[in-house]
Design a protein that fits this description.
The protein is mainly alpha-helical. The chain is built from 8 helices and no strands.
């Protein structure tokens, strides 16, 4: 499927407003938690942001390290194909990451996780992103690793609050976008050199 910046822009807005709005509706009407109480719950917002950004950076560094292993090849290929088509600039990356970090965390960690639990939410989250595959051992290991990351966001939500989960999700997406963009550019340079030879 061909993907373009306008499509991803609309998908990002959909994630932020529709999925985020659905999460808020679940919180307010199914969980019966007043939204002001929800947003004021957990640790102080400064602490949440500190823990969220710290965990997000740590997870990103681990993911960059693991990306050179064979079991991450499937996830790398999928993400690389999207970044190659989009060729996002820094402001696109910040916008996409913000929309995903806020909208998805409101729905999954804020709304769904209290209803069905942390681990089922983590599995569903990765499944819906298309990273849960069973075609090979590498694909299974990659999916398992991503489920652990998703669960880490769930634990952040439980022990710190929604802002911590949003901050971690946002910074993971930002760092991984820039890393994958750099890797795609390197591959392009290699392909160009090979064509010259």
């Amino acid at each position: 499927m061909k993907i373009s910046r306008p499509v991803v822009f609309l998908m990002s807005l959909f994630t932020l407003f529709v999925l985020g709005g659905l999460g808020l509706a679940i919180i307010a009407y199914l969980l019966h938690i007043p939204l002001t109480a929800f947003f004021l719950s957990g640790a102080p917002w400064q602490e949440q942001l500190f823990f969220g950004f710290s965990m997000g950076i740590g997870i990103s560094l681990l993911s960059v390290f693991l990306s050179s292993f064979d079991f991450m090849e499937d996830a790398n290929f999928m993400a690389g194909a999207i970044v190659k088509q989009l060729n996002p600039q820094w402001y696109h990356i910040l916008f996409y990451s913000f929309c995903a970090g806020v909208g998805e965390e409101l729905l999954f960690r804020g709304g769904i996780q209290p209803l069905i639990g942390l681990w089922p939410t983590a599995v569903i989250f990765i499944f819906l992103h298309g990273y849960l595959r069973f075609g090979s051992l590498e694909a299974v290991l990659s999916g398992f690793y991503l489920i652990l990351i998703s669960a880490a966001l769930g634990f952040l939500m439980i022990y710190r609050g929604i802002y911590a989960a949003m901050a971690a999700h946002f910074i993971i997406d930002v760092i991984m976008f820039f890393f994958i963009k750099k890797e795609v550019a390197k591959e392009g340079e290699t392909d160009y050199r090979e064509e010259e030879d």
